[in-house]
């Protein structure tokens, strides 16, 4: 088996729950299908995802890397918000991989060495047929890119705008995550969690993880009184 993404350089790990099955497509079904088939011969060479925080950018990039690993393909996830303090040498030799997923592109824009490194990296990936996914908080033409050649490259991919879920979507996402965990989450309990928890999906999912552990430990079903007790609400 090929090495998994977490075993590749830099030791950047992936969340176990960041999978395509764990993502609620909502209005983004076309993007999910592109990601699902990107490593096929007819797959999209370059995908550009943009949206606000909590819109699912990071989840989808990591899910694509998990899918590549399941297919015995080599992938690497690079969160530039965490890695941007390193020199851009880490972008060298990425064309030996099957998939490269670059997150938080906006965090290194305006930095000449990084922009040049990304421009040359993108060219090498294209020339070697390595699939590329890039995510940022803005559309390609709205990013503050100083290098015109890089700005041009960013418009070459298929671009998708991810929009945060509304409360109905958050409720569906919470119930989907519960099913994946094998949890029985009654509708009234799910609505209560949504009402009491911060609206960010990460906060909702963290609360669900705490409840999963607490209910297993106490051998209790999820009820509103138990949720109040377990989460201190």
UniProtKB/TrEMBL annotation:
It holds the Pfam family Bac_DnaA. It comes from the Bacteria. Residues 92-159 form the Chromosomal replication initiator protein DnaA ATPAse domain. GO terms for biological process: DNA replication initiation; negative regulation of DNA-templated DNA replication initiation. Coiled coil: none annotated. Residues 167-231 form the Hda lid domain. Signal peptide: none annotated. This is DnaA regulatory inactivator Hda.
């Amino acid at each position: 088996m090929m090495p998994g993404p977490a075993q590749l350089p830099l030791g950047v790990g992936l969340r176990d729950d960041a999978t395509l099955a764990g993502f609620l497509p909502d209005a983004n079904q076309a993007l999910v299908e592109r990601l699902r088939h990107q490593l096929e011969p007819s797959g999209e060479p370059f995908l550009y995802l943009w949206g606000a925080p909590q819109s699912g950018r990071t989840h989808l990039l990591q899910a694509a890397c998990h899918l590549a690993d399941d297919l015995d393909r080599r992938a690497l996830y690079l969160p530039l918000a965490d890695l941007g303090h390193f020199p851009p040498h880490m972008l060298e030799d990425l064309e030996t991989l099957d998939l490269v997923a670059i997150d938080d592109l906006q965090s290194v824009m305006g930095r000449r060495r990084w922009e040049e490194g990304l421009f040359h990296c993108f060219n090498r990936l294209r020339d070697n047929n390595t699939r590329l996914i890039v995510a940022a908080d803005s559309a390609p033409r709205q990013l503050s890119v100083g290098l015109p050649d890089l700005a041009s490259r960013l418009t070459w991919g298929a671009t998708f705008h991810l929009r945060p879920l509304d409360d109905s979507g958050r409720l569906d996402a919470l119930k989907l995550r519960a099913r994946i965990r094998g949890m029985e989450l009654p509708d009234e309990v799910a609505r209560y969690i949504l009402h009491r928890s911060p609206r960010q999906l990460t906060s909702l999912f963290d609360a669900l993880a705490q409840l999963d552990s607490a209910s297993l430990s106490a051998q209790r079903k999820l009820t509103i009184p138990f949720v109040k007790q377990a989460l201190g609400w």
